Amino acid sequence: MLDLILLGSGGGMPMPNRHLSSLLLSYQGRKILIDCGEGTQVAMRKMNTGFKSIDIICITHFHGDHIFGLPGLLSTIGNSDRTEPIIIIGPHGLKAVLKGILITTYLPYDIYIIENSETSLGFILDSKLLKLNEFQGNGKNDMIIDTIELEHSSPCVGYSFYFSRAPKFLIEKASLNNVPQDIWKRLQKGENVFYNGELYEPNMVLGEERRGIKLSYITDSRPVDAIPEFIKGSDLFVCEGTYGSDEDLDKAMKNFHMTFSEASKLASKGEVKELLLTHFSTSIENPEEYKEDAKKIFENTIIGYDGLEKTIRYQ
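RESULT FIELD:
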């Protein structure tokens, strides 16, 4: 299963009840942070999430409401006794931005930078850390991250995360194939095993592939044509809804953002299971006021708020 906390649901400037953009994913005890706006550390402390187990940070773009919380967070992670590397993913310009951010900060861990990736990135859960799979395209990945170029006023990318689900172990199949019980666990983990002079493969004890969990994250952007296919079939689609009403469509177009209805249409076209709206303009005091308009287009719509917690389970 996948747990998530919406740490910040605001866009532009922080408000007393609304931190800036940040979403925390938790997978088998490890964490992925998407964006790191001002106040992210405070929100994490409120939710008692801890800092040390963040393995991957994904940045959509370099506007302040998505990245100004990063310098302090990286320092705090260092103060939490973390020594393992952290992977930071982002659009073109990430290396230069991080160089500026880290110029006065010492970190007791390395940072691996992945800038402007045009291919899927596979990750494995190794020794309780999410690590980049060095053999991309080979073997099984526990998680796959894809990116899409968005339409904003600065280089910006959206993300999709696919969390794999292992096939079911079948005792009957293992017995039928005369697989020694001593090696069942290794085969269940996906290993090929030589035992007593014979080769045993995982498919001798495992069932069919099972569907995993897909989460997609789009902000900040206009609704570009490629988004529906990119988010297709997502269990949860997290999307910006900077403006609640279509009366503000001109503002949305001018500032390269979306209205609630535009985000809802993307959710419908992408055949996602659920839509979570976030990144609300400071002009929206109560996003719930516009909820019904969004639900007319896409029924399974949730209005985000700081501290929202959600669990997505394997089906």
